[in-house]
Structure formats: C-alpha cells, structure tokens
Amino acid sequence: MRYRITFAAGLAIGYVLGAKAGRARYEQLTRSARKVADSPVVQEVAGLVGAQVGNAGRTVYDKAVDRMPVTSLRDFLARPTDEEIEFVEWESRSSNGTQPRGGKNAPGAGEEN
Asked: Is residue 57 assigned to a domain?
C-alpha cells in the first residue's frame, strides 16, 4: 500500500509540474530531442549499434542451435528420453546374450516404488 501512495504522489507532483511548464516547454524539449536524433553522428552510432545487436542476436541464435539442434516441436518430442535409450541399450545387450533378461541390471531393477 505504501508503494501505491508513493506512486500516486509522484504522479500528482509530475502532473502539476508538467502543467506549470506548459506547452512552450514541451515544444522546446521536442525540438531539442529531434535535433539530437537527426544529428549525423547519432545516426551513425545508432546504425553501428543496430548492426552489432543484429550480429549478436545471430551469434546467440547460432550457438543455441548448435547446443540444441531442434528444428521443430515434432523433432523435439520424437527424441527418446534417457530412460528409453537405457532400455533400448539394455534390450540389445540382453538379446546378444551378454546379459540375462530380468537380471539385476535391468532398467529400473534397483529402483523402489
């Protein structure tokens, strides 16, 4: 509640001070801001920053794709879980005769419910 009162008080003070400054001051601030924004130096810097942000975004995207190469939700959902991979490996070992079926090393054999 204290924050709401503080916010409301700040809003009221800003409104009163803004109303006293009037339209002339608003126009002066607007002209100054436009002059700065239209400056060739500011335009050049804005272009460089925009290019760097674009390059950084592409770099982040490329790194994310390298770590998690998922092209669609369907691809992601089609991936086997760790448990499924373990079961398939266990099943292939047991069918080759290297491990008996239902042995103590069966997936989930050591887990308690």
From this structure: yes
The range of the structural domain enclosing residue 17 comes to 1-38
Is there a single domain that holds both residue 8 and residue 20?
yes
- Distance of CA 92 to CAs 52, 97, 98, 107, Å? 51, 9, 9, 12
Return the structure tokens found at 59: 């770099």
Q: What is the pLDDT of residue 35?
A: 92
38/17 Cα distance (integer angstroms):
28
The pair of structure tokens assigned to 27 is: 């126009």
Mean pLDDT, consecutive 10-residue stretches, the chain (113 aa), reads: 81 76 77 89 89 85 75 75 87 73 56 51
The token pair at 74 is 């369907």
**CA Rg value for the chain:** 32
For residue 47, the one-letter residue type is G
90 near 105, Cβ under 8 Å? yes
Q: Residues 34, 57: one domain?
A: no
End-to-end CA distance of the chain: 49
